[in-house]
Amino acid sequence: MALPAELAARSALSRICTRCSVSLQSRNGLAIGFHRVSRQQRRPLSGRSSGTKQVGGIPASVAGRSFNTAPGRFSSGVARAESSSTVPRSPFQSKPVLAPDELFHSFTNSPIPDIRRRAAFMRQHARCPHHDHQPGGGMAPAHVDFECPDCGIPVYCSKEHWADDYEAHLQICDTLRQVNEDDHDLRSGRHFPEFEYAGAQLEEALVNMSNWDTFLYTRQFNAINDDRSMRQATRLLTYPVTIGSILHELSPYNIKPGGRLTPEGIKSLSALRYTLHPPLTGAGTDVKKLRVEAPAVRIFVLGARAESSLPRDVWIQLAHLFPRTRIHLIFIGPESMLNRDDEFPLPPRTPTNPFGAIVEDRVWPTLKISTIVDYYHTIHKTGYFYPYDPYFDCFVMFHPGLGHPASSHEWEESLPMLLETKAPIIVTGYTQEDMERDINWVNKTAAGEFDVLLEPGENRFRSLRWDLNDLDPQDVSAGNWGVWAFRGKRYETTRKSADD
Prior knowledge:
The chain is of the alpha/beta class. The chain folds into two domains: 374 residues, no CATH class; 94 residues, no CATH class. The protein contains twelve helices and twelve strands. The strands form three sheets. The chain has an eight-stranded mixed sheet with strand order 5-6-4-3-7-8-12-9. The chain has a two-stranded antiparallel ribbon with strand order 1-2. It has a two-stranded antiparallel ribbon with strand order 10-11. It is globular and about 80 Å long. 46% of the residues are buried.
């Protein structure tokens, strides 16, 4: 039985904020990808086009094939054939419990049980940031216990330390309050029209990718009239739109000064764009109009976590940006099935399916999704996806933590193999510090063996919603805040004259 698209998105977002910090805690207590942001980045959002957010995992009950038949504005005779008048009971289907003007509550006294449990988790694991508890401060480390009355989040061990450090806390207090209200809004029980996604794009209607506002308008989304709804909507859409904004022929990244695309980048992306935007051939359903179709463009999402379990209606938005091309999304990573427990056990590994891939065929007429629970280098060694073609293949890594001490060792074996394919590799980061650390690691590990395709910088289609690291409440981060791209270096062939 299908779940409505809105219910799917709300369920997905309800698990996003703590998924990365909790799952990565099992490694060594570090939350990969979360980093202390600069003073400028900690300021509250002042509008739709400034700010960002991060995303995490989704329960399997609202992911995967259950969205292939979601009713609503996505219905069509091909891919949305069925809808149901009765929907399974869900905690998100209850009557509204919070009015729009009463979203602020302290985490400990929240009317939402999930948020109260989150407050308890923070009290057990997060440390007080006061200088007295730092090395040389004279006091032993202590867990947070006092909730700031202005933001409602446990941030210090006591009221005294909060008051003493108030100037520092004031830099992020407004942003933390925004996080608080956004989390309560998500669970308020209200109707979420921002999760009703646009359908297929008209051939004659061009997409404007200057920013979120122009994109949503030209893609004919329902009007989003307030910043909070915009933050909720972009928190999921940032994944497919980030990819589309770089690969699309109308990409805001170009070779002009300040456009961030390098000469090598225009070469690589032009090859992909040639495939993603094929010319009209007069193809049709009649025998005389049959045409040979090009292979599907393969987009490998490596180190997949939350993105692999997003509602499929979110990923269909990527297919709408390239309506004349078949796309095969391939999620690869040891955590790619996290929060999809109802799909376990995984398919057996057989000669025809050697890696036990979960294949979701015909998610959309032009979109296919495969999920493999394994490391990329393990698959690459077998030649399973060989050959790789820069015209048809692209790699994407969302917040991979390439340079993070807790995860860099997992990429050491994969990086040379990725460079060997000569295909574009798109990488995002939570913050500028996170992104720069990944770049430094790649420079150190593969110096002289790669070309930068897209210069590092802020992602135009980052999530507009801030997220909180439950292991450090002073830490706010943003999904896909920054983006850059590279590929293995290509060596030009030169000829020697007979005289030489």
